Amino acid sequence: MKKLIVIISFILLTKVCYGQNLDQKIEDLLSQMSLTEKIGQMNQYNGFWNFTGPQPISGDSKKKYDQLRKGLVGSMLNVRGTENVKEVQRIAVEESRLGIPLLFGFDVIHGYKTQSPIPLAESASWDIDAIKRSARLAAKEASAAGLNWTFAPMVDISRDSRWGRVMEGAGEDPFLASMIASARVRGFQGSDLSDPNTILACAKHFAGYGYVEAGRDYNTTEISINTLHNVVLPPFKAAANSGVGTFMNSFNDLNGIPSTADKFLQRDILKELWKFKGFVVSDWGSIREMIDHGFASNRSEAGRLAILGGSDMDMESSIYIEKLEELVNSGKISIDYVDDSVRRILRAKFLLGLFDDPYRYIDSDREEKIIGSKEILEGALDIAKKSIVLLKNENNLLPLKKKGQKIALIGPLAADKNSPLGNWSIAADKDSAISVLEALSLGVMRRHKGNDLIYKQGVRLINKVPDGFHEEVSINENDRTGIEEAVIAAKEAEIVIMVLGEYGYQSGEGRSRANLDFPGLQQELLERVREVNKNIILVVMSGRPLILNWADENIPAIVQAWHLGTQSGYAISEVLYGDYNPSGKLTMSFPRSVGQMPLYYARKSTGRPGADGEDQGSVFWSHYQDEKNTPLYPFGYGLSYTKFRYSKITLTDSKMSPDESINAEITITNTGKVKGKEVVQMYIHDRYASATRPIRELKGFQIVELEPRESKTVAFKIDRSLLEFYSGNNRWEAESGDFDIYIGTNSDTKIKAGFVLND
Ligand code: BGC
């Protein structure tokens, strides 16, 4: 009853009339707001507990509470849990003059409390429906905690695995990443934002953040117009086309302009060309950071440049709230800019249904019921299995036999229940992931009773000083005491499973690395174990591609298991035992050496190409003296417990006019003994164009599931839209001429055909 009275009085207070359309409602509310209140909507503060950037400067809690009461805050981040959200929302709604409800944002990057695999891992499933479902479940769990906005998906393309944030993205390819961006947006937002199980999504970081020089986080960025349009922007455009409610800009400067103040990006492209109706939030403190960039000389100037550039909401710089009013009153900024931003922010609040019921996301019964529920846990397990990539499997060492094997499980990450949660798992309980040890032991107890399992850590994890909101852990670099024990256990075992890689927080924001090998003493442990037992199955947990050259040469079976989230151990165990046949494919090229960075399959030919890895008989071609050009494992690569045979490509025609389409068909046969799934990939090469084109680009893929000896024919439709690119004429167009088409099991496929696009 009390709630009802609050809602009714709230409606009366804001005079929002229900017959009105959305635009009228926004205008009506806007007309009641003072300039100070308008600017308040553009202000976002961190909450009172966790923080996800440098120490908040928004000041003490008392100041924040006072400003909430005065209607000077439009959104809070990192306030979560129905009780906390309710209290803060209550102040905004019941104590401020206009009672405008708050947006509650949080980094729901791969789940809320239940973690699904890190986004890079999920992308390796290539399963668009499964990725969408994962986002939908994350939204359901996060909204049950009172949240209504996630700062996801991150859609930055990155081709440099030194950058720790590759774990948050969908890999190196714009075509696949665009499909994943749409799937994630649709998963989070559903078809009706006012449904309490959905939350507002945020495409970030606009733009170019994945191109930080030398892979060093927050570094400067130079991107040509050609690369910007053909590679960097497509996933953002896909998110916008899918109706994403918000964008976040980025910390980097792009070609000399900090993204936060980049009018070309935020106004000309996003708001004008793409007709984006949502709002842009700055990244944490990025308005203030323009002073350090050397772009704004003081806070007022930073605020002026940010709003002119198209940043609608200020996350944790407190600059808008402090300086905008004066900028408007002195005529330095037109009120129109403020009004435009406020309209966009209010629109999001209306769409979420917050004006109908500001407490609609806040229901403690739902919180209790949904968080960690069976449905969410099962969803996390499903996508975790699909995300695993089998990199090597000599002599069918995998799957494991279900009985009669003596197994030694070794490695610092084998029993760790925190690492698999991965970075951005702030709301997860510490040590809440199922470890490989737990899952395998359970298997041995219940289903594989004839197997014998012994565990040795080998190399210890070291807890370092916490940095504010989570524990910092590293992998031991000098204590060899555990190695001997592990070697003895390995000697007595038939099979050794080694779980090595990066601790969960060794990738992610601020976690760039100049070396991409196993941290600490893990390589030494691996080599020592290999001296006594060659039957090693290496399970790699990491947030990015690592350099696995030695392992590839010396270890018979390698499984890329990323940071797979809460259900990690179960997923890995199902794959190791063959209860699930792996079908994941890499979405980033795995390097042979850090010196190859940036590394990606869709490279340009250059004027001196030469066949990869072969001696050209002279030095004058594009290559390294001391390393191959090729990756260790290419984009799109991943094995199965069965084998697939591909036929030749059949084209329905070898030429097409711009208004026609042709089909490329290929037959795939399962030639192995077990059922399996294959991601059939199609790449196209535009041979000659007004601007140089990549040697091939992904333009289609389909997942087929085949029983042993079964065949299926897959057809890809090719029309002009697939051939369009941002050309040398500075526009999107398909240019007539010769095209090569490749279909196969990864980006290195040699199965080829050709066609011509006529004028
Ligand atoms: C990150 C964003 C994140 C924000 C809020 C920043 O440091 O770059 O991706 O959404 O913090 O936590």
**Head-to-tail CA distance between termini:** 70 Å
Report the radius of gyration as a whole number of Å.
Answer: 27 Å
Specify the overall morphology: globular
Q: How many distinct helices? A: 23
Short structural summary:
The protein is built from 23 helices and 29 strands. With 759 residues, it is of the alpha/beta class. The N and C termini lie far apart (70 Å).
Write the layout of secondary structure elements.
Blueprint (H helix, E strand, L loop, with lengths): L1 H13 L7 H11 L2 H7 L1 E4 L14 H9 L5 E3 L4 H14 L7 E4 L12 H5 L4 H17 L4 E2 L23 H16 L12 E5 L18 H8 L1 H8 L4 E4 L3 E2 L2 E2 L4 H11 L5 E3 L7 H4 L6 H11 L4 E2 L3 H11 L5 H17 L12 H7 L3 H14 L1 E5 L12 E5 L25 H11 L5 E5 L4 E3 L9 E3 L5 H12 L2 E7 L20 H11 L3 E6 L7 H6 L2 E4 L7 H9 L67 E3 L3 E2 L3 E2 L4 E10 L5 E11 L10 E10 L4 E9 H4 L1 E2 L5 E2 L3 E8 L7 E6 L2
Parallel strand pairs: 1-2, 1-10, 2-3, 3-4, 5-6, 6-9, 12-13, 12-16, 16-17, 17-18, 21-29
Antiparallel strand pairs: 7-8, 11-18, 14-15, 19-22, 20-22, 22-25, 23-24, 23-28, 26-27, 28-29
How would you portray this structure in words?
- With 759 residues, this protein is of the alpha/beta class.
- It is built from 23 helices and 29 strands.
- A six-stranded mixed β-sheet has the order 11-18-17-16-12-13, sandwiched between helices.
- Helix 4 links the parallel strand 1 and strand 2.
- Helix 2 packs across helix 15 and helix 8 packs parallel to helix 10.
- The longest helix has 17 residues.
- 54% of the residues are buried.
- Bound molecules: beta-D-glucopyranose.
- Beta-D-glucopyranose (BGC) binds next to loops.
